[in-house]
Each structure stands twice: as C-alpha cells, then as structure tokens.
Amino acid sequence: MYAKLAWRNLRRSLADYGIYFMTLVFAVAIFYVFNSVSDQPAFLSLAESQRRMARGAVETMEWLTTIMTGVVAWLVFYANRVIVRKRSRELGTYMLLGMEQGRLALLLLAEVAAIGAVALGVGLALGVALSQVFGLLVEQVFRAPVDQRSFVYSARAAGWTLILYGAMFLALALWQAAAVYRQRLIELIHGARKNEEIPLRSRALALAAGLLAAGTLGTAYWLADRVSRTTGLDPTDPRVSLGFLLGVAGTYLLFASLAGLLTGIRRRTGGWLARGLNLFLYRQVTSKINTHAVMLATVALMLTFTICAMSTGLGLGAAIRGGLESDMPFSYMASSSDPDQDYSGLRALLAQHGVADAQVVEFVAGYTGLEGADLMLPDDAGRFLSDEEGGYTVYVPVRAMPYSAYGRLRALKGYRDVPATPDGYLLHAADRGHEAAARTHAAWERFVAAGSAVEVVGVALRPAAAEVFSEPLGYQLGGISPVLVVPDPVMAALAPDEERSFSRYLVAELPGQDPPGLAEAASAWALEQSQGQVWVHVSSRAEALGSVYMIEGILVFLSFYAGIMFILISATLLALHQVTDALEHQQRFAVLQKLGVDDAMLNGVIARQVGLYFLTPVLVAFVHSGAALVALNRALTREAGYETVGQAALTTLAIFAAIYGAYYLLSVQSCRSLFRPGRAG
C-alpha cells in the first residue's frame, strides 16, 4: 500500500512541479556536458603545449562546476522545503488517518529519492546527447577542427556526476524526511498557511528604507563610475569591495521597502485599479512581492552576476584575441639585444620548412634619444604635461628604423606604399589602446600635418607624409612608443650608447599555415643563442594565438556555465513560487469563475501576474548590470583598448531571454492548468 501511495504521490508531484524536475534534469545534463570537455576529440587533437594550458582551463572549470553543485543543492533544498510546506496539509491528513510518523518520513524519503534518481538518469542521458553537439563548440573555441567525429561518452564525467548529484539528492532526501519526522501534527496541518513575514509593515519605515536603498545604490553606482575613471585597474581598491557591499545591501533594502510602498501606491491609483481585474491582479502581485522579498532580492543579484559575467567573459575573450591578432601581424618575429646578432641559424630553419628568403626581413632598430613631447606641438606638449592620465605619453622614448626595412615589412603584409625622401621621415604609431593613447596619436598627427622638423644625429628631417601610419607591425615595434622611420644613411649614423639601446629583428611572414615543428625548433634555437647579457626571443603568431584561444575558452566556458546555471536557478525559484502559490490561491480564481469571469480574461490575468512577478527582479538586475558594465567597459577601453560590451551583451541577452522566456511560458501554462474547471475549489 505504501509503495502504491508513494508512486501516486510521485506521479502527482511530477505533474504539479514539472518545472522543478526539469531544472534538476538540466542541471545534471549541463554538469556532465561541461565536465566532458577533456574527452572531446577537439581537446585530444590539441598540441601537447596547448593541451597543458587547456588542462588548466578544464581543471578550473571542474572546480567551478563542483562549487555550482553546492548552489544547486541550495536550490533543491529550498525548493523541497517549499514543496513540502505546500503539501503539509496532505501529509498531516495521512497522520490523522493513522499513519505513523516514521512511515510518513519514509514515504517522503522514497518520493524525494525517486524524483532525484529519475532526474539523475534522465539528466545523464540528456547530457550525453548534448555533449555530441557541445563538441562543435569546443572545436570553435579551441580552434581545433576534427576530421572524423565519433560518438563521445565520458566515463569520468558520468562518474563524477553520479557521485556528486547522487550524494546531494540522497542527503537532501534524508534531511527532508528527518524534518518531517520532527514536525508535530498541528505544524503539518497549518504549514501551508505559513508565509514569509512582510519585512516592513509600517509605511513610514518602508519609505525610510526605500530612501536609504536609493541612497545606498546611488553611492554604489557612483563608486563604480569613479573607479572606472581612475588610471590603473586595481581589483584590491577598497572602493570596489565597498561598492559591491553597498549594492547588495541596497538591493535587499529596496525589496524590503516594497512591502509598505506598494500599499501606498494602491491607494493613489484608484481609477486605473477599478478597471477590469486590475485590482485583483495588483493585490496578487504585490502580495507575492511582499512575502517573497528576500527571495526576489537574491534572484535580482544572481541575475546581475549572470549578465555581467556572461557579457564580460564573452566580450573580453574576443577582445583579447582581436588585440593579439593586431599585436602579432607576422608569422614569426625574432628579436635580440645584440644589434650584431647572427640570424643565419634561424634563416636555415625557416628555409628547411619552406620559407623563402623573400618572406624574411632582417633589420636593426633602436632608440633615438627623443621623447614623445619632441613629436608634439608646444601647446599639445603643455596640455599633456598637466594631464594626470595621459601625461606619461610625453616621456615615452622614440625608436627609429630604416626606410628600407619599413617598406619591406609593409610589402609583406600588403599595406599600401609610402613615400620615401632622402631628407624626410615617417611616423608610425599604433592607434589601438586606451583613451590617453588615442589623444596622443591625434597630437602626433597635428605635429606631422604642420610639417614640423625632427633632428636626428644632427640631420634635420621633415615629414615625407602629412599623416601618422598605424598599420599593425607588432607590439615589439608599434606599441606605446612611436617609431620614427628615417633614411638608411641616417639610421646607419645612429650608434648605441648609454641612453640609446639597439636590437636586431628578424620578421617572417608565411603564406600558409605554420609548418609542424617550426615553432618548437625556433624556440630551441633562441634558447641556445641566449648567453650571458645577450637575450634572444622568437615569438610565433600561431603559438600565441593558440594560448589566447585557451584563455578565451576559459572565459567562454566558465561564464557560460555559471551564467546558464544562475539563470536556471533564478527562473526555477520564480516559477516554483508561482506554481506552489497558485495551489493556495485556487479558491480565489474559483470565485472569479463563479462571478462570471470567462476563460480568456482569466488566462490574461494569469499571464500578466506571472509576467509582472518575473519582471520585478529582472528590471533591478538590468539597472545593476547596466551600471556595472558601463563602468567596466570604460575602464577596460581606457586601459587596454578592449571593448567588452556590445556584441557580447546582445548575445548574453539573447541567451537570457530564451531561457527566462521558456520558464515564464511554462509557469503560465502550469498555473492555467491548475485553474481549469475541475481543479479549482
């Protein structure tokens, strides 16, 4: 009999709380999918050096998924408590009919454990299916295409999922059964009537709390703006932690104050509320917001974290990749602190791997003794000297390189030809970077546009072109410091001294993909050449981009996992409260039906009620995340030229809308099914 009763209750629970069950399934599936990365063919096809870095990313993600399992455990704990509280009258009725309390606890244990076991099995099956598609994303992120694809099953990820989630479901089932065992009959009978206390019943206190919340949140936004306008990104800045704490406190104060404020608003909007079922709708929504204030504030903070984490993770990864592609335009760049460095060994290696001599440029570049201010008009130099953020640009050293090498470098990349005169110079400076660098670039443009002369080793040179060239030449040449392109005889007259150091460079541009083994051989050659005070470094664009793809993969996977899980948790909490509260309010909707409200009006009220409840924390999260993303984007753009918002934010909002919208529609459908004739009353 007890087994039959447990099975009947289990089927009814799945029907009434399908959203909760669906979330458990998705949580298990996503956990398996993200922990199966190391067994994906794209991961196994990586080079050994890339795989070591990717292994670190996978280990980090495994730690995050384990931590997130604790968050999911809190969700399951909270959801189970809500469900049991709503079923407390039913459980109390079993005891009134003679069921022993111990058997009641075992009955509930069997139900909760069965739901967890079914969710675990279905979730694992779904995870295995989704991991086949997830492999395509791994290929794109790690830039490791696979020629032949096969069915992927990760025994390690499956075992880890079974251990963590199985233990979690069992522990929560035991805890829930023990909690019911300790409850008295009177507590079970009246448990469904318990609700969260309204935080502030006094309207005066609510108004004071609302004003305090506005001041607290305003201060948090102001601190974020101030930090974003300060030179240098310092996460340990006390204003960061203070702003975070004020934001959290202000959010809880805001939702706590709604308990009294909404009552006052209702008394001043009689005309609108008198139309149709607006008054009923208003009382329903405000009642839910008042009694679930703490939960709604928590959801708003989780959604804020989700939007910020996903937007920043996706945008920053793409920005770093784009920046490196600009910083390393050539396939290989070697540099040596010895201006007489012999590159014959490296040239031989390149030749062995099919790199023609025409694809290689070798030259010497060095510092001229000039500074950034020497390439500015007097008025511009004076303004920068008094600029707290951009003042350093007047002191950056100016390097020089010969016309012949500069022309060949541009030819390798297919850049347009530039003029060359025996008594002229060209100015090259990267235009990507923070705000101060952009203003400095504009000042240098005004300098050359005015035809200003520059003296190098006693030779007066005038601009051969009235513009500053900024095509990517690599961070070693075209970084913060400007490059003065001078005639070859002038460059030959420059000599190293205590103030002017010179380096010898070798640049190679390959027409196709990087030959296997060339990067490792070039690095080994550079290591052999580095002796004593002489250092030699060889950078490979393919290897550097491979490292960046790993970093981008870490950011994408971690932000995706954390973001999707937080959206699932937030939407589940909101949906679960809607469905469980709907059970309590069935009688109210039954009265509306008896008063003549047709199905169309009733369905409209339910849709608007659920929509307003879902939108309340979302609106707060949008305001919070908007302020945070604007500040973060300003700071990163100024400091590193990384644009983090935009495309990434749109992608985040699309994912957010898809998941959140699906839960909203499911909640509406579940609530409508509870109020159909035959279930109400």
TrEMBL record:
Membrane topology, from the record: Multi-pass membrane protein
UniProtKB keywords: Cell membrane, Membrane, Transmembrane, Transmembrane helix, Transport
Positions of the ABC3 transporter permease C-terminal domain: 66-176
Transmembrane parts of this sequence: 14-34, 63-83, 104-137, 157-181, 202-224, 244-265, 293-320, 554-576, 610-632, 644-666
Superkingdom: Bacteria
InterPro entries for the chain: ABC-4_Integral_Memb_Prot (IPR052536), ABC3_permease_C (IPR003838), ABC_permease_BceB-typ (IPR027022)
Protein localization: Cell membrane
Family: Belongs to the ABC-4 integral membrane protein family.
Protein name stated in the entry: ABC transport system permease protein
